[in-house]
Automatic annotation (TrEMBL):
Residues 1-55 are annotated as: Disordered. The chain crosses the membrane at residues 66-84, 96-117, 129-147, 159-177, 242-261, 281-306, 313-331, 351-372. Residues 65-368 form the Acyltransferase domain. Coiled coil: none annotated. The keyword Transmembrane helix applies. One of its GO terms (molecular function) is acyltransferase activity, transferring groups other than amino-acyl groups. Keywords: Membrane, Transmembrane, Transmembrane helix. It comes from Streptomyces agglomeratus. This is Acyltransferase 3 domain-containing protein. InterPro entries: Acyl_transf_3_dom (IPR002656), Nod_factor_acetyltransferase (IPR052734).
Length: 408
């Protein structure tokens, strides 16, 4: 309570609700710092907290090294699998590796995305962040990829924001998934509902290509599963016995993939078509949806079991995986448009496949660096304060802070 310059008393506005920390570790630290989760009741220390200066930079959020490591390693696997596509013909071993990686690399990334979307609601700030962090990058890179294809390969390629091309499908899918998060969190059994939707999509060939809805719906259960996970679930898969058990599981998976490589169609792993569209009966879509979901979860658990939980040299790169994902596609497609693999057929030999694997791993690592992230922040993390109305409550709170500073 203080005396305003015009002579009347005005009660201060209630303090802003603290944002949920980004990681489980940060959330625990925040709860401990404020007295929650202990036997003693929280002390009323908020009134003694100094008022921050307007425009002051807030303290950076604590990041969990485990999730940054997982995101970086997953995006490296995504890039490697994309680079294997033009060189794996005639190589049964490479095709088997491709099948194994495609079984879990995007499910793992989507599960982590769902886990970090648990706090999403339809508040003003969350919607603004969804627009600037997902929708705007989608528009920019969908346009950029289309122009790149027109310049390099197909002058008649048209720009269509309703028909995602190549890598951009993930952005529009993430936009839809995150926007529907409150719906899934309000359901009593969201995962069975999401699986039922995925099954229906896998047997419905007339869904169409708009917004790549086949992938949006068929990958939906992984996002919903991420919403349901808690920190203790990730601690379970990181136990020593799980790490040891993951070794024979992955070895058996590799052997099975080597046997199945010439027999199994790759269309199942893309989740972009109904079963009828890839030449299978409708009931195969039902079977493969549940079979791939189970296999993906097992392999994702094995992958997460091997992800280091401590800070590594690549931990800092986990914050730049969006750049690695969106930019490496220009390298992969550019190599194809330049007929690189036809000009140098040795790239399809075992030694060449190793070379392109290492090359794309190094390239995507560089694309995840803070330097590249800062360079492309205008496209991937634009501020865009000019595009949104100011929150009247926040404006009043800032005026109150300035008045308190002047009064002191």
């Amino acid at each position: 309570m203080f005396h305003a310059p015009h002579g009347y008393q005005r009660a201060p506005l209630p303090p802003a609700r603290e944002q949920e920390p980004e990681t489980p570790l940060a959330r625990t630290a925040s709860a401990t710092a404020h007295g929650y989760g202990t036997d003693a009741p929280p002390t009323p220390a908020r009134a003694a907290t100094p008022v921050p200066l307007p425009g002051a930079t807030p303290a950076p959020k604590q990041r969990d090294a485990f999730f940054d490591n997982a995101k970086y390693l997953a995006i490296v696997l995504v890039a490697m699998a994309h680079m294997w596509e033009p060189v794996m013909d005639g190589s049964r071993a490479t095709r088997a590796l491709y099948i194994v990686v495609y079984s879990f690399h995007m499910p793992a990334f989507i599960i982590i995305s769902g886990y970090f979307s648990r706090g999403f609601d339809l508040s003003r700030k969350k919607l603004q962040r969804l627009i600037t962090g997902v929708a705007v990058p989608y528009v920019i890179f969908e346009t950029a990829y289309t122009l790149f294809k027109r310049w390099a390969d197909d002058p008649d390629q048209s720009i269509s924001l309703l028909d995602p091309w190549y890598l951009t499908w993930f952005l529009i899918a993430l936009f839809v998934w995150r926007l529907t998060t409150p719906v899934w969190q309000s359901l009593r059994h969201p995962l069975p509902v999401a699986l039922a939707i995925a099954v229906l999509a896998s047997v419905t060939p007339n869904i169409g290509d708009d917004l790549n809805l086949q992938r949006v719906l068929q990958f939906l259960p992984y996002f919903v599963l991420g919403l349901l996970l808690k920190p203790e679930h990730f601690r379970m898969v990181r136990r020593r016995e799980v790490r040891l058990l993951a070794v024979p599981v992955v070895l058996c998976t590799l052997l099975f993939a080597y046997w199945a490589a010439p027999r199994l169609g790759l269309g199942w792993f893309y989740h972009s078509s109904a079963s009828q569209q890839i030449g299978a009966p409708w009931w195969a879509g039902v079977v493969m949806t549940f079979a791939l979901f189970g296999c993906s979860l097992i392999l994702t658990a094995c992958f997460l079991a091997w992800v280091p939980g401590r800070r590594m040299w690549f931990t800092v790169l986990g914050a730049g995986t969006l750049g690695g994902y969106l930019l490496h596609g220009f390298l992969v497609k550019g190599a194809g448009y330049a007929n690189l693999f036809e000009t140098y057929p040795w790239l399809s030999t075992p030694l060449g496949e190793i070379f392109v694997t290492v090359a794309i791993a190094v390239a995507v690592t560089l694309l995840c660096t803070p330097f590249v992230r800062r360079m492309f922040r205008w496209a991937m993390e634009p501020e865009m304060n000019w595009a949104f109305r100011r929150d009247p409550v926040e404006n009043a709170r800032q005026r109150e802070r300035r008045s308190l500073i002047r009064a002191s």
